[in-house]
Design a protein that fits this description.
The chain contains 3 helices and 15 strands. The protein is mostly beta strands and 300 residues long. It has a 14-stranded antiparallel β-barrel with strand order 1-2-3-4-5-6-7-8-10-11-12-13-14-15.
């Protein structure tokens, strides 16, 4: 099993090591990639996500996300976004502060502008890896790196449509001359949008898309479609153009508490036969929910 995982690990690193983590339930954690979401959905919002990728494999990739945002006076929003990733021998934690400013374009249209600032701490330990060569391998070492960065974003919100553009890390950083290339922050550009189609008084259809563009990598798109019952229960499907299909469900347990779960299966031929599945759980607490037109219940 360890040999299978090591093979999968290096194949995945070849393709995705310099990309930010994927989240199937990206709608719960939009402030992670776009600082302009800070304060846009509720007066105070706390969201937690735990993603267990390839859950059947020991030491498989795991991601934890915590975001907090708060609506302040004078159209200002503040927030914190923290993401921790564990990839076998590699770990990284990104911590950022978010700032947003709201512009009232019209009675039903809001435009948010955002700024993100913080850093990512990378750590990798290759010393314990088993090799086929009995001689010492100079590549087997441990290293750590601290990369500060800045990000920007904008978010347009209406009662039945939303659009997001963001670059959460504006600058490349890291050492590209050796193995620490894995600690490089590549510039990621995100486009996201969604609409609401009202079917009747009880049901809404909510399609959305998230497009990620990274230099020297293929552009990736996540498609998500949800059928919502009175904004109390949502169920739907997701498709990622690179490697996965999934199902997603949301439940509003209380007015201030939302719960989300997604199940994802790989469509890659090399992984589908290994029966590797991904589970993602999200919890969101909303306090003093916004009464602005186009709040979170309207745009999801």
């Amino acid at each position: 099993m360890k040999q299978i995982f090591i093979l999968i690990f290096f194949i995945s690193n070849l393709n995705f090591s310099q990309q930010e983590s994927f989240l199937t339930n990206f709608r719960f954690q939009m402030s992670l990639i776009n600082p302009s979401f800070a304060g846009a959905d509720a007066d105070n919002l706390v969201a937690l996500t735990s993603r267990n990728q390839w859950a059947s494999i020991e030491n498989s990739p795991k991601t934890q996300v915590l975001t907090f945002s708060s609506k302040r006076k004078k159209n200002v929003g503040l927030g914190i976004s923290i993401m921790s990733n564990n990839y076998f021998v590699e770990k990284n934690t990104a911590s950022y502060l978010d700032f947003s400013y709201k512009l009232n374009l019209s009675e039903n249209s809001l435009l948010y502008l955002g700024l993100k600032g913080g850093a990512t701490f990378y750590k990798a330990n290759l010393i314990g890896l088993t090799t086929l060569n009995s001689a010492p391998d100079p590549a087997q070492s441990s290293f750590a790196r601290f990369n500060p960065n800045l990000g920007i974003g904008t978010y347009l919100q209406t009662p039945s449509f939303w659009f997001s553009f963001s670059i959460p890390r504006l600058f490349n950083s890291g050492d590209t001359l050796n193995f620490t290339i894995t600690s490089t922050d590549q510039v990621h550009t995100y486009f996201a949008s969604g609409v609401i189609f009202k079917i009747n008084d009880s049901f809404d259809l909510k399609p959305s898309i998230l497009v990620r563009s990274v230099s020297n990598f293929n552009t990736t798109a996540d498609f998500l479609t949800l059928l919502s019952y009175k904004n109390l229960f949502d169920i739907g499907a997701s498709y990622r153009t690179t490697n996965s299909l999934g199902i997603i469900s949301y439940v509003s347990i209380k007015k201030f508490l939302d719960f989300g779960y997604s199940y994802e299966a790989s469509t890659l031929s090399g992984l589908s036969g290994l029966n590797v599945k991904t589970h993602e759980i999200s919890i969101r607490f909303r306090f003093n929910s916004s009464t602005d037109t186009g709040g979170s219940d309207e745009i999801e």
